[in-house]
Amino acid sequence: MNDSAAESAIARRWTNRALLKLIWPLVIEQMLAVTMGIADTVMVATVGEHAVSGVSLVDAINQLLIIAFSSLATGGAVVVSQYMGRRKNKSARLASRQLIYVNTAVSVVITVFALCLRRASLALIYGDAESDVMRAAETYFLLSALSYPFLALYNSAASLYRATGNSRIPMLIALLVNAINIGGNAVFIFGFNWGVAGAGLATLICRITAAAVLTVMLIQSRNSAISLSGIFNIQIRAGMVRSILKVGIPSCLENSMFQIGKIMASRIFTSFGTAAIAANAIAAVINSFTFMPAQAFGMAMLTVVGQCVGAGDYSAAKRNAGKLMKSSYGSVFLLSVLTALLMNPVLNAFGLTEEAARIAVILLWIHIISTPVSWPASFILPNALRAAGDARYCMISAGISMWAVRVLFSYILAYPFGMGPPGVWIAMVLDWCFRAVCYVLRFRSGKWKEKRVI
């Protein structure tokens, strides 16, 4: 197929109807992911504020540790989608296997380190936390670490399905995961009274199930462009691994810096007591609803722009990126308004103390006012750049923003300016604004069109 034919084919593929078909399962999947987080938090909250606080502290570290294989999954999705854009299905299958090999190895190494160093890392980062919060955190961290290899497999397999434009399968698996997680929480927390350990065990079981189901499906799909048939006949293709790492490593470093910055900022909450920690955790769960559709558009951006770039159709890449960004802004605005309207009844459901509820309201208003302006450009648009292979620019911009803006101003606003916990969230907004400016200028410059992944 010549270039012009490939370009017209890719342009015909991503019609508005095709985009909708890709996006709606992603939106539901994001809703299910947030629902699972809220279900965990509400169920654990019945054990006490110390349990909610302990789980929230571990989740911050969890996000840092799982970033490596989440980023590799992004790199694999970009490589596979570009091969599909070029109609090179055999190469796409080989790249799919390389992703599984690399991600599994990385996740096992991370698991070993997390199990060996979990207590030392918690003590180092959250040494000021109260003793009952620390005990809950240690228990939850142990069970979380055991689930890392299965989460890596699930992330890799789900990203491969999305790279082909098939978002329905990951959505159905997300439904299964939610059912297992909520049912497991009910049995282990309420039935057996295992508290935080019950929540961690339910999460472990649902991640094992999700990884097993998706991996088996890919092994059995012999004619698919992402088939893992023959995966146990290991063949390492160094060139493909380098292509995956070319996107994955900058994304990993970027997200790691982002999460380390969040952890450093979260230490501020520990100095203001359990009420501040709980308020931050609950406010973060509630505002995550605002991002759900937009995050789905961001995931779609990797597939659509990746395939367009692979086919060499940069005009289609830019046009579709614009459509997805407009949709992201619209969804964030509408859900921010809904969050404002439902804030008080939702907060009441968590059973917070009066002090924790007061802090949570302030944090949520900061979020509601700022998110529709800056969040989509700072977190959705960079996926268009990554899909084209411009991950290094995203990494550098995000690193500067995190350390020079978010971390620095979190401490300045919280302590010298006396703003306390709200100061951390204001610094977060400043970080978003800085990133948004960097990414918009880069996308408009067109320099991302000069990058190559495969």
Write structural notes for this entry:
- The mean pLDDT is 90.
- This protein has helices at residues 3-13, 16-45, 49-85, 89-125, 131-146, 148-163, 168-191, 195-220, 238-271, 274-310, 314-348, 354-379, 381-387, 391-414, 421-445.
- The chain is globular.
- It is an all-alpha fold and 454 residues long.
- It has 15 helices and no strands.
- It has one domain (3-450).
- The longest helix is centred in the N-terminal third of the chain and has 37 residues, at 49-85.
Protein topology:
Blueprint (H helix, E strand, L loop, with lengths): L2 H11 L2 H30 L3 H37 L3 H37 L5 H16 L1 H16 L4 H24 L3 H26 L17 H34 L2 H37 L3 H35 L5 H26 L1 H7 L3 H24 L6 H25 L9
Helix pairs in contact: 2-7, 2-10, 3-4, 3-5, 3-6, 3-9, 3-10, 4-5, 4-6, 4-9, 5-8, 6-8, 7-8, 9-14, 10-11, 10-12, 10-13, 11-12, 12-15, 13-14, 13-15, 14-15
Q: State the end-to-end distance.
A: 18 Å
For the report, how would you describe the main beta sheet? none
Helix tally? 15
Overall tally of domains? 1
Mean pLDDT: 90
Q: Structural class, judged by helices and strands? A: mainly alpha
**Elements, N to C (H/E):** HHHHHHHHHHHHHHH
What share of the residues lie within helices? over 70%
* Overall form: globular
Radius of gyration: 21 Å
Say how many strands there are. 0
Low-confidence segments, ≥5 residues, pLDDT <50? none
State which percent range the strand residues make up.
under 5%
